[in-house]
Amino acid sequence: MYILHNTVFYRDMYMSNDPNQLAGQNFVKAEHFERMKMANANNPVLFFQFAEQEYCHRALAHRYQGIAHAAER
Q1: Dihedral sign, CA of 29, 35, 36, 37?
Q2: What is the rounded distance in angstroms from the CA atom of residue 64 to the CA atom of residue 45?
Q3: Suppose 46 and one of 15, 24, 31, 40 were both cysteines; which one would form an S-S bond, judging by CB atoms 3.0 to 4.6 Å apart?
Q4: Helix, strand or coil for residue 27?
Q5: Pick from 24, 11, 32: which is nearest to 68 by CA?
Q6: Per-residue exposure over 28-64, b if at least 16 CB sit within 10 Å of its own CB, e if not
Q7: Is residue 71 within 8 Å of residue 19, measured between CB atoms?
Q8: Distance (Å, rounded) from C-alpha 64 to C-alpha 17?
Q9: pLDDT-derived band at 62, boundaries 50, 70, 90
Q10: Which of 54, 55, 36, 56 is nearest to 46 (CA)?
Q11: According to the lineage, what is the superkingdom (predicted)?
Q12: 40 and 50 in contact (C-beta within 8 Å)?
């Protein structure tokens, strides 16, 4: 039997609603898809699929970043 210690204070990093953290996660995903896009520059179908994913995650990151800045005021 496996017991987690201090499970009362355990917080899953992917379940946070903090806009700064969500912005960071989406910036990381956008960078990943940018690298995948460049790695598939010779395949137009994959290039544009990864470009679309990069655009979506970058837009989400900027949206969450704006929410975070608005909440600081």
Answers
A1: positive
A2: 29
A3: 40
A4: helix
A5: 24
A6: ebbeebbebbeebeeeeeebeebbebbeebbebbeeb
A7: yes
A8: 10
A9: very high
A10: 36
A11: Bacteria
A12: yes
- Cα distances (Å, whole numbers) of residue 58 to 5, 21, 25, 31: 36, 14, 10, 8
pLDDT of residue 9: 54
Q: What are the backbone dihedrals phi and psi of residue 14, each rounded to the nearest 5 degrees, phi first? A: -95, -5
Determine the residue type at 53. Answer: Q
Q: What is the SS3 assignment for 14? A: coil
pLDDT in tens, 8-34: 555 565 567 889 999 999 999 999 999
Amino acid (one-letter) located at 14: Y
Q: Chain-centre distance of CA 56, in angstroms?
A: 10
